[in-house]
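INTERNAL AUDIT FORM
Audit reference: QA-55
Scope: verify that the stored structure record matches its stored sequence.
Auditor: D.O.
Record contents follow.
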Amino acid sequence: MIRVIAKEFNSFLNSLIAYVVIGVFLSGMGLLMWVFPETSVLEYGYADMDTLFSLGPYVFIFLIPAITMRSFAEEKKSGTMELLLTKPLTDWDIILGKFFACFLLVLFALLPTLIYYYSVWALGNPAGNIDTPGVIGSYIGLALLGGVFCAVGMVASSITSNQIVAFILAAFLCFIVFTGFESISTLNVWSVNALVIKQLGILYHYEALSKGLIDSRDVIYFFSVGALMLLVSKIILSARSW
């Protein structure tokens, strides 16, 4: 599995994907946090990072599928998938190797945003007047969300050999799993079951982590959804339907 992670991550670095993803994410979030008046921290007047953690997931919905779309789709289209399967690797080695390579790239994109935290911390009145536990919880939630989106993207890429189709499908699925249950729970047909339906969605658990309270139930939820998505990829890969 380590060899697969190294190969995939090096392929990101040897192409424009890693640099484009990190550059677009940092540029987009930087503009939203510091430039655009509707979302700027400087205009808002409060020392917090709500802009990053409330809009970051929606940026991830489009950026992470751009990372994962080539995971299996490119291998199938180029015919190297059969060659990869002939190597002394299990299906799980291949899936987890590709998943962790994508997840590492997401973490690398998040790492420079710590500069935003320091800037907001320094701009506070007095300096350091920021909800640090909430920021830590939000970072954990955003990282876990990135992991789930990577797993969803792996499913989309394993279904098709077309990278564009994999991108569109992954973006759609990420949007559904993030906000779908929240939207469905607002319908008037559920009555007392509305909260249960809401708790099935990612947004509920992401917002809970953003409050700074690291509840094991929320963490387990993210790991469970990610594991389920990877299992679906394993089932598709095992079918050898390409």
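Auditor finding: record pair retrieved intact. The mean pLDDT is 85.
Action required: none
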